[in-house]
Design a protein that fits this description.
Blueprint: E1 3-5, H1 16-20, H2 22-31, E2 37-40, H3 46-59, H4 61-70, E3 79-81, H5 118-138, H6 146-160, H7 168-182, E4 186-187, H8 189-205, H9 215-240, E5 255-256, E6 268-275, E7 278-285
Parallel strand pairs: 4-5
Antiparallel strand pairs: 1-2, 2-3, 6-7
Bound molecules: flavin-adenine dinucleotide.
The site of flavin-adenine dinucleotide has 5 residues, from helix 5.
């Protein structure tokens, strides 16, 4: 195993306990000014390095390409790493059969609240699939609403009829920095409000200028619109929860520097819904999900 070190070459994770709260310790290291962080593989045996190389060939070939592009040799160089904290904890709410509030729509795996990891993704996918096939027998064939289709066509044409403007990948790159910079591992109310202002600025100034040169870019334009909403939901929900709540390993954090303690009154969900076309935030008790047989 390589060693994670800070800018001064000091070990960031010293023992098993540190390792179990690595995301928190890495974020702290950066926040306290000892970043950037690096992986140091230089003390590993040639045999271990070759095993890593084989693993990269099979599972992460992009890592080898990245090292080549940067001219880095992990036998000799420190490998810079960026912490991208998984600090967005929200997803679709379902019942225990993975039905959402929209009849006929199911959510499983990563798209579903509470579920983390492969085993839960597989089990929920199985249950949701079974449920959907049962429901499909009862539901009549879907009839598309003419008004809704016309609306979608109008939206798509908005991007394709322009010949100049903002490229969707550029705008996506710009919005993606907002969750990391304004609502990342350590959150603060004033900073999050600034994040909302930055998002609103991009929404009014750049979103209307999006344009697509081909169907692939049209898809990216539609995705960018969704990412705006996702980021806004994440910031608003994080602002609403005025407490700190962490899983014990420091992963999936909600760490409010301005509300550093866990508050039992917040033992509940923040639910974001669309009400009269408006993003609306409410709280709900954590549902008592029944075991599915
Ligand atoms: C770096 C990393 C390490 C992980 N390590 C582990 C681990 O060690 N053990 C573990 O149990 N879990 C691990 N996980 C979590 C695990 O990968 C996820 O829980 C699991 O992959 C979720 O499966 P899923 O099918 O719900 O979603 P995904 O695997 O994300 O699949 C969703 C698919 O939908 C596609 N898609 C998205 N939008 C559209 C669209 N509009 N149209 C068509 N297709 C679309 C995507 O391209 C993707 O193929 C890890 C995750 C990451 C990111």
């Amino acid at each position: 195993m390589g060693t994670l070190v800070n800018r001064h070459g000091e070990k960031v994770l010293r023992d098993k306990r540190d390792s179990s709260q690595r995301a928190f310790l890495m974020a702290k290291e950066i926040a306290e000014g000892r970043g950037p962080l690096y992986w140091d593989f230089r003390a590993l045996s040639e045999e271990t390095i070759q095993a890593y190389e084989r693993e990269m060939d099979h599972e992460y070939p992009v890592t080898k390409q990245w090292l080549n592009q940067k001219g880095l040799d992990f036998r000799k160089d420190l490998i810079p790493m960026q912490l991208v904290p998984a600090a967005i904890n929200g997803a679709l709410l379902t019942d225990e059969t993975f039905r959402t509030s929209l009849p006929g729509l199911y959510a499983a795996g990563s798209s579903c609240a509470y579920l983390l990891g492969l085993s839960q993704a597989m089990v929920s996918g199985h249950i949701a699939g079974e449920q959907a096939s049962e429901d499909a027998k009862r539901f009549p064939d879907p009839v598309p609403e003419a008004g809704q289709l016309a609306q979608v066509q109008k939206l798509v044409k908005r991007y394709t009829k322009k010949t100049d403007g903002v490229n969707p990948t550029d705008l996506e790159t710009a919005i993606r920095t907002i969750p990391t910079d304004y609502v990342g591992y350590f959150k603060d109310g004033d900073l999050m409000k600034k994040g909302l202002e930055r998002l609103a600025e991009l929404r009014t100034q750049s979103l209307p200028k999006l344009f697509a040169k081909n169907p692939h870019e049209t898809m990216r334009c539609l995705e960018v619109r969704n990412i705006f909403d996702m980021v806004e939901m994440h910031i608003r929900a994080s602002l609403m929860r005025t407490e700190t709540r962490l899983a014990k390993n420091g992963l999936w954090p909600h760490f409010r520097l301005d509300y550093p303690h866990m508050d039992p009154q917040w033992e509940k969900l923040v639910v974001v819904s669309k009400v009269n076309e408006q993003m609306t935030l409410t709280t709900e008790p954590i549902p008592d999900l029944k075991e599915c047989v």
